[in-house]
Amino acid sequence: MKHLHPIPTPLALAAAALLSCGLAAPAAAQSNDELLRELRALKDRVNQLEQQLQAGKTASPATAAPAGQWGMTPEQSQELSRVATKAEALEDSRDESGFKGLKVSGYMDPTFIIDRNQNRAGFQFLSGVGDDGYGYANSTFGAVALDFTKETDSGTRWRLTLVPDRGTQAIMSGANRLVHEASVSVPIDGDDTTRLLAGHVPDWSGYEYAQPTLNKLITHNLLFDFTLPTAYTGAGLELSRGNWVLKGMLANMNSAIKASGERAPVFAWRADHEINEFSGYGMAGLHGKAANFSENLDDGTGTGTAAALPNSRVDLIEIDGWYTRGDLTLNGQISWGRQSRAAIGTATGAMVFDAADLRDAEWKGVSALVAYKLSPRLEGVVRGDALFNKKNGGGLLGYTSSDEVNGIGPELIGRDANGDLIIGSDPQAGVNRYALSFGLNYAVDPSVMFKTEVRFDSASKTVFENVKSNTFVKTNRLFATSLVVSF
């Protein structure tokens, strides 16, 4: 049983003080002065102890705590409660409206182009791909885009990117369309390392992208424009394993729906490996059947008006790499591709021919880019490309006839009285293509970039048409500027 201890009295405190001051010794041994000094010290000590005792009696938790909560006044505490209630209401409203996990972004890049061979100088912005055909001087720049992405609580990602007239859907169909990407990514395991992909997905090959906010230059390299698919419509998987990201799809290539009688999809894949925070490499490929655009087939009337060919076998493989550290950026890519019965040259060399005369198109290419920041805002860029396409009169993915604007096919020497192209002495040999670009980028602020580019294109034989002089030449020059604004 515990005993209650009485509260100390002043007398008891004095006795304790006497003991502590050594007064237990006989008083006779001290002089009167010494005794007085000790009594005064004892009095001071008693007063000090009484003050401490009184403070202990009057103190309580209610009076010891500061007024208000966490040092706030009652008014401030009430205001905090009101703010917290409003924040909770806003979160509930956001969740009920479907805005949780939603991100909206976009860009536009009005572009000015001077094209020597086409005798054209002016702005290009929101011009449909079908207006002048897809080409290196009329690529995915000069566009406006609005991108919606949303991730649900379960980890499902939903994406819709709208790019009027200049997106993948417009390039595929040649008509004015809006959708650039419409895809979903659904986790199918607990740790988010395996995901289901489905929908309309832009091609993922190479080191360049369609959107100008991710590219150093205005135009694209030769491999991006002429050897890679535009988009896939289908379904597949994405796997994340350590430093590797793997993805593959069974899909239609450059087609939203298969034509009657067409049943075989393509298999498109990509693998990326991050070596460290500064560098990495990737590989991509495609295998299967895709549209064959060979023209001038003889339907038996000699007019070259036969129906389109069925899809033919396509095989594509490319390897790309990147290095970015400090002010320096390096990118590189090599590609190989083949499509059966899609070459420009034929076994007979005739411009109107039977399907039996068709031969395989095959090509190889390389591209490299170097960029260096001359100052925190100013960056210099150099890119060089080479595309080897001589086999069977040339022919690239989607380019199965001579193209005097982009420089594809065998040598061209003029036009006949009907305006048709005249092939040179060897219709069985296509031309090799080269391009060299120099550019400067100036970052006005984090969301505004001003770009300039000077580009030189050439070919091993005369294959570009100079519309002003009505001649065919080996080279072309291009100057471009654009203002890229994003949010």
TrEMBL record:
Region Disordered, residue ranges: 52-78
Residue ranges, compositional bias (Polar residues): 52-61
Keywords, ordered alphabetically: Signal
Family annotation (SUPFAM superfamilies): Porins
Leader sequence segment: 1-29
Transmembrane segments: none
InterPro entries hit by this protein: DUF3138 (IPR021485)
Alphabetical list of Pfam families matching this protein: DUF3138 (PF11336)
Name this polypeptide is given: Uncharacterized protein DUF3138
Organism listed in the record: Sphaerotilus mobilis
